[in-house]
Design a protein that fits this description.
Layout (H helix, E strand, L loop, with lengths): L4 E6 L6 H10 L3 E4 H7 L6 H10 L12 H10 L1 H23 L6 E5 L14 E6 L2 H12 L3 H10 L3 H6 L3 E4 L4 H15 L8
Parallel strand pairs: 1-3, 1-4, 2-3, 4-5
């Protein structure tokens, strides 16, 4: 049995990355979500959570001992140094978690879904990168509608994420998601059939 090659799937907030990932998964592709891995590494009882509480203080924990994400987000959005400290703690742990999950894949290729694939260096774990792209105005509109958040907050998130240009420089494939869901699914199926012909992510 050949070891599956790894496709990195990324896109800015509101690009439709989750809808694309869900359809690949429905087609039987093994999927690992970096966001889920990021949640697992800060579960109560895991060393990372203890380090975070020591560094930021106990008020970043909820009463039940879980991480208070909103409180932590508030801290790191205001301070680039604190964000870098947190990233240097979490990125290696998340990378380990991701590798463990990818190594159990049984499909011909597996997908690592990560909004920060490029920024975090996780693209180095992959052999090929698919970027889900959408016009910025559409990203903002979708995110405001989905998360019920004001436009300024979406702009703040967009600033932290890689610019579209930077993300697209790393892309082997680009899926521009500016139409309806049926069209999007058909595109995913077209890409899936192409990916099944690849060895190690290369034609």
């Amino acid at each position: 049995m050949n070891k599956p090659w790894i496709l990195g799937l990324t896109g800015g907030i509101g690009s439709g990355k989750s809808a694309v990932a869900a359809h690949f998964s429905a087609l039987g592709v093994h999927l690992v979500d970096a966001d889920h891995a990021a949640r697992w590494v800060v579960e109560p009882g895991r060393p990372a959570l203890e380090r975070i509480a020591e560094h930021f203080g106990r008020d970043v924990l909820q009463a039940d001992g879980q991480l208070d994400r909103a409180a932590l987000r508030q801290r790191i959005f205001q301070s680039p140094e604190e964000r870098r400290w947190l990233e240097s703690l979490l990125h290696p742990l998340i990378g380990e978690e991701i590798n463990n999950y990818l190594s159990s894949a049984e499909s011909p290729y597996a997908i690592l879904v990560s909004p920060l694939l490029v920024e975090s260096g996780q693209h180095r774990l992959t052999q090929r990168v698919l970027v889900v792209d959408a016009p910025e105005a559409l990203q903002i509109q979708r995110t405001m509608h989905r998360d019920q958040v004001p436009e300024e907050q979406v702009h703040a998130i967009l600033k932290v994420q890689a610019s579209r240009e930077h993300r697209l420089q790393h892309a082997h494939d680009v899926l521009v998601n500016d139409r309806d869901l049926n069209w999007l699914r058909a595109e995913v199926e077209r890409l899936h059939n192409f990916y099944l012909t690849l060895r190690g992510g290369q034609p």
